[in-house]
Amino acid sequence: MSDAPFLPLCTSGDGGVALPLHLVKAGDEATLAHLLGEHEAFLRQQGFEGCAGQFTFLPGGSGVAGAVFCVEEGRGPMPYGALPAHLKEGYWQPQPEGQEDAAHDAMLEELVLGFCLGAYDYSLKHEGGKDQKTGPKLCIPASLGREARILARAAWLGRDLINMPANLMGPAELATAARRMLEERKVAVELVEGEALEKAYPCLAAVGAGSDRPAVVVIGRRDGRSKDAPRLSLVGKGVCFDTGGYDIKPGSSMAKMKKDMGGAALMLALACALLDAGTDIALEIRLGCVENSVSGHAMRPGDVLTTRRGLRVEVGNTDAEGRLVLADLLAEAAESQPDVLLDAATLTGAARVALGPDLPALFSNDEELADHILASGREAHDPLWQLPLWADYDGWMDSSIADCNNLSSRPMAGAITAALFLQRFVPEGQRWAHVDTYAWNDTARPGRPAGGEVLALRALFRAFSESF
């Protein structure tokens, strides 16, 4: 895994002979007929009708003379993710057809992002794996697609972290990767381990106690360029593998648990994108890198843990460990009173039952902040869906012997009760948002290869690269 992933792009003129890639709005029959030329009748007979998502090569005297891709307006970057599979190896010069200058540049921005997201491939094969330095490449002027390049690199980095098998991506490896990425961006990084971790983050330490691979907390800080730069604090759940602990998961539920650090991967990818874009923010980031295992040292159902904030939590279920990891990190992050405190986690299956795999659940104690994030998601074609912090369910987390339980007494509204648990560790008046994500693509689709995914990256980047 590299912190400078290769993107399938070249600047115009440095890739040798480039064939034209004509981008046509679906339904623009006049433009399409002109491009197809004398081959129109033949191509139409082959089933090419210019519908959204359709692709065809254009024949020439010495073979392929170009290609045509039909796009539906208003769909964002993802439809372009089909192109890496369609185009043959070589260099391609995008040519948006029938577009004014502003629309031309916007189309290229979406093309670059979608194409790069679709070209991503993860493989540890010794031989025969896909070489991402081969395949089709887009020739794009260096002056265009800057934000798309930043987001594509960040997405590739986050996907790599999630896709890495757990034996190669334990707490120490995740912390090392995060440290490298942050320090390359001039972030001051501290790794908290051992006795210092047990003292500062007792709940998190209890989660990691069952594993032979010690827990690590990554803390990164960088000041903004200006004195009044807004302060953003990021917190990510980095459970590198989750067996469920003594409340062990069945094998079918454990198969993808290397992705349980997807919240940390998302927050790290977001931090990298914001810093690479030169956003003027004062940034803090905390990642709880830990493994939830079964052993004689593991926490047990019925144990009572004391959190950093002093609240005592009864462990109703050892598989509800993510909220224990986040509790201590949120409490510490709030101590510096940031303008916004944002956390992300693969926290509950209940959020997936409610919203499916593609819609991260958003919770917030500030409606203006929630509206801003939701609007950013719509603009970036990277949606989230808000669920309520319904106070009437808060009592479901009560315990008869401790301040609260980490498990709800009712088998309903699991995403909401998990968010309500987290809210107990966020001080009154602190603007806070929580993202419950799946961090995975079960099937391959344009722009979204099967495997690890940093859902909501583009939405959150748009939300926090501007005034918040």
Task: Sum up the structure in keywords.
468 residues; alpha/beta; eight-stranded mixed sheet; six-stranded mixed sheet; 15 helices; 19 strands; 21% strand; elongated
Summary of the model, kept short:
With 468 residues, this protein is of the alpha/beta class. The protein has helices at residues 29-36, 40-45, 83-86, 101-119, 146-163, 171-183, 194-200, 202-208, 251-254, 262-276, 322-334, 349-355, 367-379, 414-423, 457-464; strands at residues 9-10, 18-25, 55-60, 63-71, 90-96, 136-139, 188-192, 216-222, 231-242, 282-292, 304-306, 312-314, 340-345, 361-364, 385-386, 404-405, 432-436, 440-441, 451-452.
General description of the model:
The chain is an alpha/beta fold and 468 residues long. The relative contact order is 0.12. It is built from 15 helices and 19 strands. It starts with 8 loop residues before the first strand and ends with a helix. The strands form 4 sheets. Strands 7-8-10-9-13-17-14-15 form an 8-stranded mixed beta sheet, with helices on both faces. A 6-stranded mixed beta sheet has the order 1-6-5-2-4-3, with helices on both faces. Strands 11-12-16 form a 3-stranded mixed beta sheet. It has helices at residues 29-36, 40-45, 83-86, 101-119, 146-163, 171-183, 194-200, 202-208, 251-254, 262-276, 322-334, 349-355, 367-379, 414-423, 457-464, and strands at residues 9-10, 18-25, 55-60, 63-71, 90-96, 136-139, 188-192, 216-222, 231-242, 282-292, 304-306, 312-314, 340-345, 361-364, 385-386, 404-405, 432-436, 440-441, 451-452. The model has no long low-confidence stretch (mean pLDDT 94).
